[in-house]
Amino acid sequence: DLSGKTAVITGSNSGIGLGIAWALARAGADVVLNSFTDSDEDHAIAKDIATETGVTARYIKADMSKAEDCRQLITDAGRCDILVNNAGIQHVAPIPSFPTEKWDAIIAINLSSAFHTTAVALPMMREAGWGRVINVASAHGLTASPYKSAYIAAKHGIVGLSKTTALETAEDPITCNAICPGYVLTDIVEKQIPDTMKEYDMSREEVIKNVMLKRQPSKEFATVEQLGGTATFLCSEAGDQITGTTISVDGGWTAL
Ligand code: NAD
C-alpha cells in the first residue's frame, strides 16, 4: 500500500510513464505527472487518475532537456518518495549523419535529466526515511543495435547511474534500479517505424516482425500495464533489498 507516498514520474502524459503513473496511483500513491507541454489534455489525464483512484494527481510542466526544469519539477512536487525517471526520445540514423542536436537532446532528456531529478529527490527521500528511484532504461541499456547511437549510449549511461545511485544510498532505506523494457508499442516506437522502414527498405509489417520483434523471442510487445506492475513491485516490501540492478521486461531479448 503506497498511500501517503508521492510518486513523480517524468514524461508521463503518454506511454510507459502514464502506465506506471496509473499503476502507482492504483496502489495508493499520490502522483505527479509531467511532460514539456501544458495542454488541457495533460491536466485532464491527472484529473482522470484522481477521479478513478481517489489519490491526489497533479500535472506539472517541466522540460526534461533543461537542467533547471528537472530540478524545479522535484522542488515543485514538494515531496518525492518515488522518483520514476522515464522521459525519453529516440532518433534513428547512422553515426556519420546523426544530427548533433539530436545527440545532445537525447543525452539531455534520456540521461542527464535523471541525474538532475535524483540530485534533488535523494535529500527528500532521506528526510522522509524511505525512497525508490526507478529509472526506465531499455533492453538497449544492456545491448546495442545499429543506428541508435545516442539512445543506446544514454540508456547504457542510465544503467550506470542507477548502480551509482544504489551505492550512494545503500545504507539508507532507499533503492535504485533500472527497468529494461524490450519493445512496447507506444508513440516512441510508432514514430521510429517510418525511419526504420527507410533504413532497411521494408514495409511496416516487416519492420515490426523482422526488425523490432526479431530480437524479442516472445514475439509479443511488452505492455505499459506490465511495466506499471514491475514498478509497483519495486516499491513493495519485497523490493527492500533489490537495489543497483536491472529488471528486464523484454520477452527474452537479453537472453539471446
Ligand atoms: P512515449 O513517447 O509515449 O513517452 C515518452 C514520454 O516522454 C512522453 O510522455 C513525452 O511527453 C515525454 N517527453 C519527451 N520529451 C520530453 C521532455 N523534453 N521533457 C519532458 N517530457 C518529455 O514513449 P514510451 O515508450 O512510453 O517511452 C517512455 C520511456 O520508456 C522512454 O525513456 C523510452 O526510452 C523507454 N523505453 C521504451 C520502449 C518502447 O519500446 N516503447 C522500450 C524500452 C524503453
TrEMBL record:
EC number, UniProt record: 1.1.1.30
SUPFAM superfamilies (alphabetical): NAD(P)-binding Rossmann-fold domains
EC class (word): oxidoreductase
Gene Ontology MF: a single term: 3-hydroxybutyrate dehydrogenase activity
InterPro entries referenced in this protein's UniProt entry, alphabetically: 3-OHbutyrate_DH (IPR011294), NAD(P)-bd_dom_sf (IPR036291), SDR (IPR050259), SDR_fam (IPR002347)
Keyword line: Oxidoreductase
Superkingdom per UniProt: Bacteria
Similarity-based family: Belongs to the short-chain dehydrogenases/reductases (SDR) family.
NCBIfam families in alphabetical order: PHB_DH, PRK12429.1
Protein name, per record: D-beta-hydroxybutyrate dehydrogenase
Native organism: Sulfitobacter pontiacus
Taxonomic classification: Bacteria, Pseudomonadati, Pseudomonadota, Alphaproteobacteria, Rhodobacterales
